[in-house]
Amino acid sequence: MKLAVIEGDGIGREVIPAAVEVLDAFGLELEKVPLELGYARWERTGSAISKEDIEIIKGCDAVLFGAVTTVPDPSYKSVLLTIRKELDLYANVRPVKPLPGIMGVTGRNDFDFIIVRENTEGLYSGIEEIGPEISWTKRVVTRKGSERIAEYACKLSSQRKNKLTIVHKSNVLKSDKLFLDVCRQVASSHGVEYGDMLVDSMAYSLMMRPDKYDVVVATNLFGDILSDMCAALVGSLGLAPSANIGEKYAFFEPVHGSAPDIAGKGIANPLAAILCVKMLLEWNDRRKEAALIDRAISNVLENKFITPDLGGTSTTAEVGREVAKYIVQNL
């Protein structure tokens, strides 16, 4: 496997080295291709990402990505949106599952669900006009985009509890009617049990009864907001991984941002980035190795090798080192 490794900005430069140390502990045959992308590079060179970078990434099988700072400057080209569109990474997959001994805001640990977010259109279409008196963004919902995200969500559902929840706001946003209808049709064709929820009701329900859900599918913006919100269920954004999946490529990144306020202090939680390595291994059909990461994380949590966001005193590097050490000892 050929893997592009992009630390990015802020704490990405701390959590990705910790995650790579964990990946290296398995001794797998893979070629790592380091790339510098993001705001720091843009400040220095005027370019956050280039066509040449995209070609290098397309020469790899997958990407392990840290974080990126995005600035409200018209000349700044969004790194994440560019990569998602160029690689056609249409499915954003965010598991929401508690870790041993860590409680979120609800004090519950009886849930295990996945949010599948359409990743290439919706309000993140990139079709915008900015003016002094009026600004607008075009919300794009297509049958093709809705079908393929529904297919992906149904495939996941069939591997789990065969249960799908479709999130929408079709009572107000009429473009959501197409998304809802297509998701219903695809679920029916696959024999997947389905229901649907308005996004505002879903936000409340996820906080109150997260155990009710298995696979949740949503349009781009709704999926983005709901999945970030659900980090509160597991206890920290530093515990939330994600995958961006396409037909040919995959891109793995922790949900947290670049967190410039804590960057360089060595206190960022690397577990989300390490869980991204787990998702990378699962995508590469290395499920035994992925399961070992779960056990390694349980071990560090049990032995209180935790960063300050979870009430501990360990550094980013120390947590990564302990996870890697457990893997080496238990291969």
Automatic annotation (TrEMBL):
<keyword id="KW-0464">Manganese</keyword>
<dbReference type="InterPro" id="IPR019818">
    <property type="entry name" value="IsoCit/isopropylmalate_DH_CS"/>
</dbReference>
<dbReference type="Pfam" id="PF00180">
    <property type="entry name" value="Iso_dh"/>
</dbReference>
<dbReference type="GO" id="GO:0006102">
    <property type="term" value="P:isocitrate metabolic process"/>
</dbReference>
<dbReference type="GO" id="GO:0000287">
    <property type="term" value="F:magnesium ion binding"/>
</dbReference>
<dbReference type="GO" id="GO:0051287">
    <property type="term" value="F:NAD binding"/>
</dbReference>
<keyword id="KW-0028">Amino-acid biosynthesis</keyword>
<keyword id="KW-0432">Leucine biosynthesis</keyword>
<keyword id="KW-0460">Magnesium</keyword>
<feature type="domain" description="Isopropylmalate dehydrogenase-like">
    <location>
        <begin position="2"/>
        <end position="323"/>
    </location>
</feature>
<comment type="subunit">
    <text>Homodimer.</text>
</comment>
<keyword id="KW-0100">Branched-chain amino acid biosynthesis</keyword>
<comment type="similarity">
    <text>Belongs to the isocitrate and isopropylmalate dehydrogenases family.</text>
</comment>
<protein>
    <recommendedName>
        <fullName>3-isopropylmalate dehydrogenase</fullName>
        <ecNumber>1.1.1.85</ecNumber>
    </recommendedName>
</protein>
<keyword id="KW-0520">NAD</keyword>
<dbReference type="GO" id="GO:0004449">
    <property type="term" value="F:isocitrate dehydrogenase (NAD+) activity"/>
</dbReference>
<keyword id="KW-0560">Oxidoreductase</keyword>
<dbReference type="InterPro" id="IPR024084">
    <property type="entry name" value="IsoPropMal-DH-like_dom"/>
</dbReference>
<keyword id="KW-0479">Metal-binding</keyword>
<dbReference type="GO" id="GO:0006099">
    <property type="term" value="P:tricarboxylic acid cycle"/>
</dbReference>
<dbReference type="GO" id="GO:0003862">
    <property type="term" value="F:3-isopropylmalate dehydrogenase activity"/>
</dbReference>
<dbReference type="InterPro" id="IPR011828">
    <property type="entry name" value="LEU3_arc"/>
</dbReference>
<dbReference type="GO" id="GO:0009098">
    <property type="term" value="P:L-leucine biosynthetic process"/>
</dbReference>
